[in-house]
Amino acid sequence: MSTPVQLVPPPIAAEPPAPKHPFAFIFHFAFKVAAMVFYLLCETFNKNQFVLNFVVCIVLLAMDFWTVKNVTGRLLVGLRWWNEGNSETGNAWRFESLAEGQRVINPYESRWFWIVLVANPALWVLCSLSALLGLDWGYLLIPITGVVLGGSNLAGYFKCSKDAKKQLQSMTANMATSAMTSAMTGRLQAAIARV
């Protein structure tokens, strides 16, 4: 007699966790999408209005740059970067990351932060190539600005991420060293107490 085969339904994919910072999550996308859409459609709606189109696109790109650099990076991945210019010492990159105890990062938000951060300059490079091949010299300035600002954020967060990893490794090494030192000190004190 054969045993009946039970059909097991496929597992249901788990829904991504709800964003912990929904406004930051939305604005991480909003300014990028607004700048890209306005750039792609600006000649459709505002023909012969180059100055207006240029100004609106640059303002949207600047708002995106500032938002990512100062708000969404800190909230979504716990990182922040800035560059200090000084006539005596030159430029210096500064990095800030939340301590491990304070850092509670939603993996869904973090993944999308990095995907969008990498994709943004890549899409502006494609727009630059399109404007270059189309010999649209005036509108070439907008995607070049998008590449520069998006690339700056990407480079800053990449360096900041590496710095945060170094800080975590050094903190772990310091904790291990202090734990070993305290254990050895305890054993040494116990040995001396026996003598």
Automatic annotation (TrEMBL):
InterPro entries associated with the record: TVP23-like (IPR008564)
For whether the record's keyword set contains Cell wall biogenesis/degradation, the answer is no
Protein's cellular compartments? Golgi apparatus membrane; Membrane
At the top level, the lineage of the source is Eukaryota
Q: Which GO terms describe its biological process?
A: protein secretion; vesicle-mediated transport
- Name the keywords, alphabetized: Golgi apparatus, Membrane, Transmembrane, Transmembrane helix
What name goes with this protein? Golgi apparatus membrane protein TVP23
